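Thread: sanity check for a docking pose with guanosine-5'-triphosphate

Original post by kr_44:
Hi all, I'm comparing my docking run against an independent structure prediction. Below are the sequence and the ligand SMILES. Could someone generate the full complex and paste the structure tokens? I mainly care about where the ligand ends up relative to the chain.
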Amino acid sequence: MGRMSVRTQSPEPSEQAAHRAGFACFVGRPNAGKSTLTNALVGKKVAITSNRPQTTRHTVRGIVHRPEAQLILVDTPGLHKPRTLLGERLNDVVRATWAEVDVIGFCLPANEKLGPGDRFIAKELASIKKTPKIAIVTKTDLVDSKALAEQLIAIDQLGKELGFEWAEIVPVSAVGEKQVDLLADLLVPLLPEGPALYPEGDLTDEPEQVMVAELIREAALEGVRDELPHSIAVVVEEMLPREDRPADKPLLDIHAFVYIERPSQKGIIIGPKGKRLKDVGIKSRQQIEALLGTPVYLDLHVKVAKDWQRDPRQLRKLGF
Ligand SMILES: Nc1nc2c(ncn2[C@@H]2O[C@H](COP(=O)(O)OP(=O)(O)OP(=O)(O)O)[C@@H](O)[C@H]2O)c(=O)[nH]1
Ligand SMILES: [Mg+2]
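Reply from moderator J.T.:
Ran it for you. Here is the predicted complex with guanosine-5'-triphosphate included:
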């Protein structure tokens, strides 16, 4: 059986350990908990999360600083059976990412039996021979120890069926803060030796404008159902300090567009008397202000970008 890791005691400090730095990506089906885990490891929200599948739409780097190592996490979109051009592009991004990292963390939720989607991903991972693969069982707070044990065995078995051993099989709970540090401890030795790649204190390399757009999208995703979550895209057009403000009372003007795919979706996003859009504005503004550390005036507009998920021109315009 592959190594299954549960923390029992602190690791022995080793004096002459060389500094390590490198990349670990998290892959898995949509909704497996990759972005939540990335945030928990970094200790700050660098990636948005939601209970809707396919929340993440680009790779997000989160940086974990340790005295002996710099671990750069690359959160990826959930790998799925694509139904749109966007879906195909997102899957391509995942495959390009796992080909270039030092270690792959395959995330599998503890509360869902292994399915065809997981097998499909594991099969592809099996063909990447040179890169160590860690199986990460996420959301362990949602199951009892018996169900967890069964999941660990099933994952070990899956590796064997495909002809490889997981470097580790680690159960974690990002929400329950269980074994998250242990996961970092296990990833670090799999990184190459080398100096830090990012300045001390940098937690991500996401541009501010992208993070702002993502926070708006996260707020807009809440409470929408069916196809609508997939149809929403957000673009920040402009972020400018308001002129004629006293130095001690700055205000940042942010103009953003919330795109949807069909005119019929407009009413749902805006809500009765504009209430939904207003709530999205209030909620995301609070998060943006916390992120940027300045008061913000947020101007949100809803626009139709017809069938943008399937239209190469629209996709390019929206940054895919
Ligand atoms: N109970 C529990 N829920 C979790 C945990 N980790 C993630 N979740 C929930 O699972 C849902 C999906 O989490 P995400 O982190 O957005 O999943 P993802 O794998 O990044 O999803 P995509 O970006 O769509 O591929 C959210 O509702 C999270 O709150 C966990 O450790 N415990
Ligand atoms: Mg995600």
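The pocket of guanosine-5'-triphosphate (ligand 1) is lined by residues 28, 30-36, 49-51, 53-56, 77-78, 138-139, 141-142, 173-175 (CB under 6 Å). Hope that helps with the comparison, let us know if your pose agrees.
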